[in-house]
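Appendix B: complex inputs.
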Amino acid sequence: MTVYLDYNAGAPLRPEARQAIADFAGIEQANPASVHRAGQRARRSLERAREQVARLIGAGPRQVVFTSGGTESNNLAIFGVANATVGARRKIIGSAIEHSSILAPLARLQAHGFEIVRIPPDREGLIQSDSVMRALDESTALLTLGLANSEVGTIQELAPLAASARKAGALFHVDAAQGIGRMPVSVGALGCDLLTLSGHKLGAPAGVGALYVGDRARPVSTMMGGPQEGGLRAGAPNLLGAIAFGAVAAAVEARLDAEIAHMAALSDRLLRLLTQSIPGLILNGPLEGRIPNTLNLTFPDVLGESMLIALDLEGVEVSMGSACAAGSVEPSHVLLAMGRSGAEARSSLRLSLGWATTAAEVEQAAEIIARIWAIVAAAESPAGEPHAHQVSR
Amino acid sequence: MSARVVVAMSGGVDSSVAAAILREQGYDVVGIAMRLVSGESSGGGGERRQTCCSYEDFEDARRVAERMDFPFYVADLRAEFSAGVIDNFVDEYVAGRTPNPCVMCNREIKFARLWRRARALGADFVATGHYARVERDAAGRFHLLRAADAAKDQSYFLFAMTQAELARTLFPLGEMTKGEVRECARALGLANADKPESQEICFVPEGDYARFVADRVHPDRIRAGQVVNGDGRVLAEHNGIHRFTVGQRRGLGVAAGEPLYVREIDADLGRVVVGRRDELASRGLIARQVSLVDDRLAERGEREIEVKIRYRHPAVPATLKLLTGERAEVRFATDGYPAVTPGQACVFYERDEVLGGGFIEQALEA
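Resulting structure:
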C-alpha cells in the first residue's frame, strides 16, 4: 500500500467528482452554446457547476470563469490585466515565492517593458505588508500574491493589502490555488478583484480551474475565438471537468471545517512523530499561520532527492521543489527566497496531506520516513564513503 | 527478497539491455538516469544543445523501465560531474594534455557518487552497460577482464576500479556482442533497439571541445603561442594549446611538404612542437595516478604486460615497473610506438585481465 502525501501537487479524485462524471458521461455531450435542447441541458449543467464553485468563495456565479486550471487562471489574470492597462500604469507587484505560472508571465511582461516588483518574504515565507504598501503607487496596474504558499504553506495576510491596492487604483489578484479547501476563502473578506482556483488540488480532475473576476476588473481575454465565459475564455468549455469541479466545490463547502480539523490533527501528529525520531529535523514556514495540510521539512545530512526516491520505493509519495522537463528535481525557489542555502533547499521535502489521508497512513508514513532517513543519512555521510580517490590538479 | 541493483541508464541500447537482463534474472532493478549537465532549460526558450542528458534520452530510458516494469528516476549529479569530470577535463586541456573524461566519469561518478546514491536506496549493486567482465576467484579476489566482444571491449575505461568497487558492480553485457545486445533489445520489444551509438564526448555539444574549454576558463588561462619544428623554427602562430593533442595531424595551420604531427605541447611556453611521423616514436612512458585493480600486484617487481595507451589502439607488449608516488614506468617491447599522448589513460593488461593503469605524464624519448 502506498501513502500519498503530495496533495499540493494534485489531490486524488473525490467520490463526488467520480459520481458527477459517471452521472454525466455517457448521457450526452452537447455544446453548452448550442441552441437545441441538448445544448440547453449542457448549459444548465455548466451553470450549476459555476454556481457551486462561486458559492465556495462567496462570489456571484457571473463572476466565475472556467479555465483549464490554475496556470491558465494565473496567466489570464496577469496578461488579461496587463493587456487592458492604459497610460501610465506599467507596474506589477508580486513576490519571489509565487508559483511558476505567476513568475513566468511576470518575467515576460518585464521583457516587454513593465516594471515588475518582486517582494521578498521573511524567513517564514511571509510577505511583509509594509514592503508591499511602499511599492504600491499610482503607476501600479496589478498586485498579485498567493494566498497560501504551495511549498511551505505560509498563509499571507492579504486583507489589509486589498484596501491599499484599491486606494492606489491597482487591481488585486490572489492565487488561491493552494488555499482553497485548506482554509476558508471569501473574495469579499479578501477584497480581491481576481482570484485563481485549481480543480485538481481540491480533488476534481486536472484540466479544470476557474478565475474569479470581480466587478472592478476588466481583463482582456488571452484566448481568442467565441464568446464563451463572458468573452474571457473562448472555446467550448471543459464541461465534464467543470461539472466535477462543481460537485467537489459543493462537497468541500459542506465539510470544510471538519476537513481542516482532520488535516491539522494529522499533520500535527506527523510532525510530532518525525521530530521525535529525526534529530535536527526542521520545519520550514511558520508553526501557526500555515495551511493545515502542508509540512515542508529539512532533513539533516541527506539529499532530498535521495530521500524522495527511497521513499517512493517504500511506497511513500512526497515531493521536492519543482520537477524539470527531464524529470529531475530542482531545489525549491521558495526556500531559497526564504533565505535557505542551496544545501538546505536540497535537503528539504514537502509532505502534503488531504481529504483522504488517514491516521493509520500517517503512522505508517512516519515510521517509514524515519527508517529511510536513517538509511539515507548513513549512506550519504562522507564518513560512510567506502573510498575516495584523490583528484590531482 | 532479491538483491537490489541500481542500473545507470543513459537511454541508449546498452544500458537499457543491461537493465532488462537484470530484471529478467530476477534482480530488484531500479533505473537511474544521471543528469550530468544542464543541457536543457526547463523554462523553455533557452538554448537547446544536444548532449547526453537530453529529455529524449531520458524518455527512452523511461520507456524501457515501463516496458520491463521497474522503477526509474532521474538523479541530479550536475554538481558532482562538474567538480569531478568537467573541471579536470578543462584543466587538462589548458595544461596541454588530452584528458579522458570517460575514465574520470567512471571513477568519480558512476562507481563513487552514483554508488553512494544507490546505497541510500538500499542497493546491493550498481550496474552499467559497459562491455567488460568481472570474475571472482576462489580466494575471493575480483578480476576485471576484457569483454567477450573484442570490438566493443570497454575495460580500458574501467582500469581505476578497486576491489571494493568490483565487488558491488555488475556488467551484464560482458559476455555479449553488440549484435546480441541489439537482438536482445528487439526480442524484449525495447524501442531503442536500433538507436545509433553515441561517439562524441557526451557533454561537449557538437564535439567542439576547444570551444567548450574556452567557454569555461578565464581568457588568461588560454595559452596562445607558436607552432615550431624540432629545431625550434617557428612555422605558425596558434591561439591556444588546448586546441592541440599529441599525435594530431590535421588543423596545425602549417603548410609543409610532408605530413607533420604534434610531437609535444609545452604549456609554459605555449609552444606546440611538430615533427615527422618517425619523430613521434617513443620507447615508453611515465604514468601518474597509477592504481591497481588488486593492490597485491604491487608487491611484485618488474613484469611483462601489454599496455594500451589509447582506447582505439591495440595493446602492445611492454615492461611495467611501479615507481613511488603512484607513478609507473612503462617500456615498450619494440621501439617506435607513435603518439604517446599525455593525459590519456594507459592501461596494463595481462592477457584478458586489467591489472590497473594510470594517466600518461610524459613519453620516454626513443
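Chain A touches chain B at residues 100, 104, 302-303, 305-306, 309-310, 312-313, 322, 324-330, 375-376, 379-380, 384-389, 391-393 (CB under 8 Å).
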